Amino acid sequence: MDMVDWLSIAPMKWSAIGAALLCGAAVGLERQLRGKPVGIRTASLIVLGTYVFICLSMSVSTESTDPSRIIGQIVTGIGFLGAGVMLAREGVVVGVTSAATIWSLAAVGTCIATTSNFTAIKVALIIVLILSGVDVLEEWSSVFTRGVHAKYSSWRKKKS
Q: How far is Cα 51 from Cα 45, in angstroms, rounded to an integer?
């Protein structure tokens, strides 16, 4: 066995694994800096795991198998992981953004396997922009902190 065989991770690609870790780390860093449950490790593992499952499903594809079923199963399964971070506290449901982030991270892993690394990186940057940009809007105008968002905002201030 030569060095090339030893380093091979076919059907996956090292560049895609690097993209998965980069995307997960970018989103996870934003979450970790805010003290949220989905940090760098969790986010990176979600993107990487999704990428690996999709690659493996595409590599065993035959006339009688359908790799797209794996994507459907990932969407369903990741929902259970996301549900685990949602809680109700004092009449307010918290963790919904973290759950949506987990779901979006699985989509990034799917992008890496099915489209391109660059597309996935752009999607990850959009996720980070949404996660950080809405806070900027909320600080800029009280219009963005009405209804349940106002209740959550006041609950969050009490906790600090």
A: 10
